[in-house]
Give the backbone structure.
Amino acid sequence: MPVKSYIEAIREGMRDEMRRDERVIVMGEDVGVKGGVFKATDGLFTEFGEMRVIDTPLAESAIVGVAIGAAINGLRPIAEIQFQDFIMPAVDQIVSEAAKIRYRSNGDFGVPMVVRAPYGGGVHGALYHSQSMEAMFCHIPGLKVVVPSTPYDAKGLLRSAIRDPDPVLYFEHKRAYRLIKGEVPEEEFTVPLGRAATVREGDDIAIFSYGLMTRFCVEAADAIAADGFDCAVVDLRTLRPLDLEAIVGAARRCGKVLVVQEANLAVSVASEVAAIVAEECFEYLDAPVMRLGGPEIPAVPFSPPLEEFYMLNPAKIETRLRELAAY
Amino acid sequence: MPVKSYIEAIREGMRDEMRRDERVIVMGEDVGVKGGVFKATDGLFTEFGEMRVIDTPLAESAIVGVAIGAAINGLRPIAEIQFQDFIMPAVDQIVSEAAKIRYRSNGDFGVPMVVRAPYGGGVHGALYHSQSMEAMFCHIPGLKVVVPSTPYDAKGLLRSAIRDPDPVLYFEHKRAYRLIKGEVPEEEFTVPLGRAATVREGDDIAIFSYGLMTRFCVEAADAIAADGFDCAVVDLRTLRPLDLEAIVGAARRCGKVLVVQEANLAVSVASEVAAIVAEECFEYLDAPVMRLGGPEIPAVPFSPPLEEFYMLNPAKIETRLRELAAY
Amino acid sequence: MAVAKTSRAPETGLDADAMRAMYRHMVRARVLDERLWVLNRQGRAPFVISCQGHEAAQVGIAMALRPGYDWVAPYYRDLAVTLVLGMTPLDHLLATLARAGDPNSGSRQMPAHYGCRRLNIITGGSAVATQVLHACGAALAAKVRGEDAVALTALGEGSTSEGDFHEGLNFAAVHSLPLICVVENNGFAISVPWAKQSHTKDAADRAKGYGMPGVVVDGGDPIACYAAARDAVERARRGKGPTLIEAKVARLTPHSSDDDDRLYKRREVLADEKAHDCLLRFRTALEERSVLAPGDAEEIRAEAMREVDKALDEAEAAPLPAPESALLNVYAED
Amino acid sequence: MAVAKTSRAPETGLDADAMRAMYRHMVRARVLDERLWVLNRQGRAPFVISCQGHEAAQVGIAMALRPGYDWVAPYYRDLAVTLVLGMTPLDHLLATLARAGDPNSGSRQMPAHYGCRRLNIITGGSAVATQVLHACGAALAAKVRGEDAVALTALGEGSTSEGDFHEGLNFAAVHSLPLICVVENNGFAISVPWAKQSHTKDAADRAKGYGMPGVVVDGGDPIACYAAARDAVERARRGKGPTLIEAKVARLTPHSSDDDDRLYKRREVLADEKAHDCLLRFRTALEERSVLAPGDAEEIRAEAMREVDKALDEAEAAPLPAPESALLNVYAED
Ligand SMILES: Cc1ncc(C[n+]2csc(CCOP(=O)(O)OP(=O)(O)O)c2C)c(N)n1
Ligand SMILES: Cc1ncc(C[n+]2csc(CCOP(=O)(O)OP(=O)(O)O)c2C)c(N)n1
Ligand SMILES: [Mg+2]
Ligand SMILES: [Mg+2]
């Protein structure tokens, strides 16, 4: 199987769906001739033309709101937000409109739209090019939220997201774009939304994570395996709706749980996973449910010592795993 | 002590602070001559004039963004968002700007601003006049989030919020406006931000809640008290930052925990409280940490049977308490 | 009835039948709207928001569209627009009485949150101005597929202050979308007058910032509104891009059943607006042109009353939704 | 040096000293900006975004302000604005090298996110156009207190498509705020040309939608820019409300150090812009007017180089922030 980078997988996911279904269009800032600031849409303008690869004005609410209207009128728009940080002006369109259109029309209208945005730190992007803002959207019924951690999943989940009849937020870790490579089949495949994946088996501690952090968790788990601790790593992949079965299953089996995310912890995906475990696995737990995430500061700072202080890495995760193992 | 309604307390909180500090201004849609759609600002225009009670254009991002700039230049704006549902267009200004200005300027600039907004259902307000959207903001470092449940707290917390050097979101339950009455001293007083209040003592179950639901929790706790179950009810009051000490203290003392909120549960304040309890109180727990909240649907529907289905009430809380008591 | 030469609106080519249909739609909307207030005052309808004073503009403009082919993203006052497109008093009474069969939203939304799949009326929420972008998107989709359908959206003048209005009109102008944006300017956004909403004379002046035509039209004259909309629709169908139409209208009621307008709107202003009620004006004009014969107007009103009476009976007999149905249609159900 | 009559810019009353100061600021900004690119190419600065081609507009406009009294909400290209107001190359080199002492943000933000409490330069984030509202708020506060301070904000032409631009200008016009909004139109928003950003000829046309003056000015001519800004500032101080100034400028670099503009910008366009580089133009003009004597320009440049060299040494010797200091200043510390 050919080895692709995470961003190649995303680009090919869009390209293949655009070839397969002419209703699929791409729109956003600089997605056309430039091919996107990260090159995620590189080549699409040339292949599909300016009617299907649309450079929009610099206005995120419009990017999402126009995509909603286009989806209602039969297209399958992929709206790119240049950085997840800049999704905020579009929150009203996402939360008040896209998420509620099926419900408020009692099922008569749907919004088959994907909003793609790069998230995450570790690239000297500072406060506004590093955030992990998925939690806000994971609270919202009517939305689906997807964060892939491998090229395979990136492509397979993106294709599912594009085919999904409801609005999907698809967040890509920008540091993973070129850092993470993996096998991606040439043949058509999809990865279902709403299903977690166990990326490492183990019985001692269940680690739940997503995005780039999944990879770091696997590294940390490998590191403590030498000492006889066998950690399962569950990649959540879809953050809304969460895969309850996978979470409860792994937590009950292991009896110890660590939830790891890049975002700060308060009222976050990690909170929800911990709350689910606390409610559903009480009689199986051998230790407090632990969470590890970013500090409670507004975003990732620029200066390297500050950025390192913010960001998780395998060593920080390992430290926490050892604490939990020792409990 | 005089008895006031919840909305009177809020109005007087603004009025008293405006008398005390001429930097305090009020701005928003219809806050002037009309005195607000709920009459929260009634009389302020007459007393303080159009320079300090400003009818803004219909544009929420501007209401908050202009308030930010005014706060930076020395005023103490109270920005009213007509319904919390309509805060969404201002999310970028709240989350990307207000919350991060102190941090990004390394402490040089601050945003002493209050954003007031009525939230909550039970008033036939349907999808867009009933939401409880606090969770999204409780995730955000740099913000403070306050939800009072009594007229006393409403006034005292609002005065603290206005005096606070940082941005405070102050959410008022619109059904509480006239439903909830209580004693409010004539003399000046404040209620500190960041402190929960035990509004009912008890050792069997710790109930954590906020806003109108606090009142329903007390009613439910009273109802099961007859059967010998003694519930503590802790009114969280400030949702960011949460009062960890109060939460952990009550949870450890009781060993059983129910978190109650009007909002849907996924990635919410209840998730965070449950996660804190699961992490900090493991050895004290006698039962799963339970959460009770709105269903996972986009918002409160209009038709009475649907609205009743959505909304919590003392009976629904009581049922859950009995489950937990029986565990 | 012989149609005299004067009975054809010369600039538009509208014949007498069309003008009578216009008047009939205006009356239907008014009669229905008045009934909603009665229901509200009787405690049977918790919320009403009116089209009264906007009927001429709404009917004139909507008649320039191809129902079910063109796309419409209306706002909460656009009752008459929906009637012209083919929705019925029954549809809206079901919504007002919160019945399961309400085609707008299954009574999940407050009344006046219009939507109808069959008629391409895009479901609207309560947040003002968001629909402008949805209409742009619908227009974009039509353009991408090479259809000549247009999209029409409407909003109040106060709502033009929102960012989404700006972003939508700018997008439509840049991409030359077949969009017609109608601003129904009734002078107030709840209590806030136009002078506190914009420093321009007209809402149509906003169009200048987007390089698109901005047309001011007398919203009390349905024929003038029809003409303006028809021109804009033709322009849009020919691929010439969007148009902003401002219809100067009157809000003859308080903002909604929750509002008391005496606080902020002088009674003389209201009295003057009522004296120029578009229904009266159009009736007089049609009678002068002999498009309406003596007695026609009364008969049209009586007919509308019968339609609304019947619809109300039917709506009252219709069931409320089942409580657990609240859980349905969050996501597509497979 | 005797100041000849021609050496006074007649429309502005600027004397030769002022014009030399202008030129000096432009050169300082250019020399500093060029040095930032060198640092970037050397791998010592991860990110650079330039003012090159905008200096004349920025310097001319900023010189119409009272530093530390008026309020400024600049954007990431406004390096020269900050220098005129009193920030220094050292300040910005500390930011570029991510040193603790960076007065903009303590190196928490990327370089070019300007802010300075002492000089009333409001801290900016990365989200474009949000600062327009902050400037409105600062202007409102001045008005409420009855001061005659003004607020100036700047943004790129692409950023005028954002809702916040609309909401801010509309608010300022309605409330007659002392606001000057400068659009630095360099023709591109990263790769997106003006024609895909707006269907208007000029960005200044946007002002028409708000009923405020919109002025187009040659952004390559600092004196013209000064004159336009001075008029707008005077208007604002007299309580006459906001002005939009569009300065037509050139972006002589790629969007940022992460961009490759060859994909979307024709080389002839860039060559032409470089041939009309505002620094060359102003130098020539000043030499023709004998405001600059032969050799002056070289000396000014050399002086700027020395200033930047010295600042760079100092910045490099300055410490990085302590890791745990990342936790500070989330809320006010008591
Ligand atoms: C985003 C948003 N903010 C506030 C409101 C509350 N609100 C409902 S209608 C209205 C006034 C609208 O005025 P205008 O646009 O002139 O329309 P009109 O009602 O006069 O027809 C306001 C402020 C809302 N629905 N949405
Ligand atoms: C809200 C937001 N969306 C997107 C971006 C990414 N971005 C940064 S600069 C830029 C282009 C700005 O163009 P323009 O306003 O013309 O300013 P210029 O850089 O040309 O001076 C974009 C899209 C951003 N910073 N903020
Ligand atoms: Mg109006
Ligand atoms: Mg530009």
User: Anything to note?
Assistant: Chain D touches chain B through 47 residues (CB under 8 Å).
